[in-house]
Amino acid sequence: MASIPELMDGHITLEVECLDRLYLNGYIGKLATGLGLVMFMREQLDKPVPSPVVLGQITERFRAAVKELAEREQIPIYEFRHKEDKDDIANEFRRQRGTRDGIVFIGVAQEKAQAFQGKKVNGRFQFDRDKTVYVNHYYFYIDDAEFGPIFLKICSYAPWAMKLCINGHEWAKRQLEKRRIRYEALDNGFLSCADGEQLQQICNSLGPAHIERLFRKWLQRIPLPLRAEDRQAGYDWKLSIWQMEVSLTQIFDRPVRGREFFEEVIRDNLDLGRPDRVQLIFERVVTKKTPGRFRTRVIQDGVHPSLHIEYKNFDWKQYFKEGRGCRTEGTFRNANDFGVNKGLENLPYLQKIGRQINRRLLEVERVSHNSGLSGDSIQRVVQPTVDGDGKKAPGLKFGQPVSWHYFWL
What we know:
34% of the residues lie in helices and 30% in strands. The chain is of the alpha+beta class and 409 residues long.
């Protein structure tokens, strides 16, 4: 069996580092507390008696606006059933409708949320978010001209939280199409590209400004719970990073080499989750006080295994993608683990950290691979060789007696 370096060196036809799935929270800072909500109703909405009735009116107005948009632009509204796979439904609608730079359909799902609930205390309403409640969320599944498939989810109850989901690979595909650069897709990634260097430059360029423009564009095109004058008064949504995936995809020239590579990785790296090994990958000192579970997991999904390592809220995984490429991927679930807050402006720093982790992991796998001779190495040992002066040295079969004086002649 060839070693990991032998399986990779000279056998990678395409290598791409890119942001993968990115989930962002949209929040209104002024409405983070019950007192802020009361001030909003009194001062902005001019309601002397802040009550749940006022919030209910906003919710009903939002629902009516969604329905009116769907009827006007003939956009389907689909009510998700409990535990139904939303991605499967979305993919089917996208195939059927073929929408470009528009809303494909609107999904409605009743889900948990930390929405404000009002209760009377001494004759006045107070609002808190101590308990989770089941409320309607509206999913706007969109095809964007620049980003491709995205969705924007809006909670219909105060404080009207949002979630924006985008994919860096899909954004890169649209940029290649604009530049008329040919590529072959690999599910959520690339199998080949006519200009690999240009592809990597495109992936490197995606940043907070692109995402902010996308967000503002669709806030102008979909119904919102708050009015334009409310947003101009400072009650507007801001984005923060909820979950972020940074991936490295390496495509092998032959599928068999990729399978051999991944078999070697799993066999020789089951201890990567130990604290001493984790320190090599994350460049963080691990002590007894470091939170999280330090373990390595091999998860079998059908015939496709994947290798998983955890560090605090960070999850790292590696798997063989569609029988052609090794996908090495790190997922940030809490930016605070790496010394920064969740603001969108910290995306470039987290992406840099994620890429470094992916690269160090591959390097650790190379170095830690067992030191036994590979088949190719053994083959070279037993074959005749020619030195720099043109003198021939015969090969030796294993088990053949060695005459040591021969080597000193």
